[in-house]
Amino acid sequence: MLKENPRLDGLDERILGVLEEDASIANNELARRVHASAPTCLRRVQRLCAIGVIERRVAILDPATFGPSLTAIVEITLDHQGDEFQRLFEERVGGDPAVLQCYRVSPGPDFVLVVQVRDMPAYHALAHRLFTAEANVRNVRSFFAMHRSKFETRLARA
């Protein structure tokens, strides 16, 4: 985990830019693209991982490949908003594999979730599992994606 604001130079930024596009490339190819030696790139990537700039490397799958899928953006308002109640809710939803993202937001609802389920019955089961009275949830407002026109994992640079 990132302990402090890391010092990143131009080479670090170029490495991160390439890896954000395709983290599966070989180290030699990464070195070629960023105009550095392979050992230097390897050390830099290891350092960026160690200090938490690179959290993890994953494959991004196409949800449509696995049959019908339903993406929901869900606004949650808790009945009690204290820090302990929010932490408990985050733990509850954080353990569910259908919850892809969870944001604590302000103003408006307390949380916004992005969930991916097979179909509407699966969403109903998720809602029953996660948003019941014992979950301290007062209000649930769900939006169902009809079409995804953009999906990025890259971070915006200032």
Q: Can you describe this structure?
A:
The chain is an alpha+beta fold. The protein has two domains: 60 residues, Orthogonal Bundle (Arc Repressor Mutant, subunit A), CATH 1.10.10; 82 residues, Lrp/AsnC effector binding domain/regulation of amino acid metabolism (RAM) domain (Alpha-Beta Plaits), CATH 3.30.70.920. Helix content is 35%, strand content 19%. The chain contains five helices and four strands, in the order αααβαββαβ. It has a four-stranded antiparallel beta sheet with strand order 2-3-1-4. Helix 2 crosses helix 3. The longest helix has 13 residues.
**Widest sheet, order of strands:** 2-3-1-4
The fraction of residues assigned to DSSP E strands is 15-25%
Write the H/E string, N to C: HHHEHEEHE
What is the SS-derived class?
alpha+beta
Helix share, percent: 25-40%
| Low-pLDDT residue spans | none
Please summarize the sheet with the most strands: 4 strands, antiparallel
Distance between the termini: 22 Å
User: Can you tell me the CATH superfamily of the largest domain?
Assistant: Lrp/AsnC effector binding domain/regulation of amino acid metabolism (RAM) domain
Q: At the first level of CATH, what is the class of the largest domain?
A: Alpha Beta
Tally of separate domains: 2
Number of helices: 5
Arithmetic mean pLDDT:
92
The counted number of beta strands is 4
Cα-atom Rg, whole angstroms?
A: 20 Å
Q: Might you state the CATH topology name of the largest domain?
A: Alpha-Beta Plaits
Global outline: elongated
Architecture of the largest domain, according to CATH?
Answer: 2-Layer Sandwich
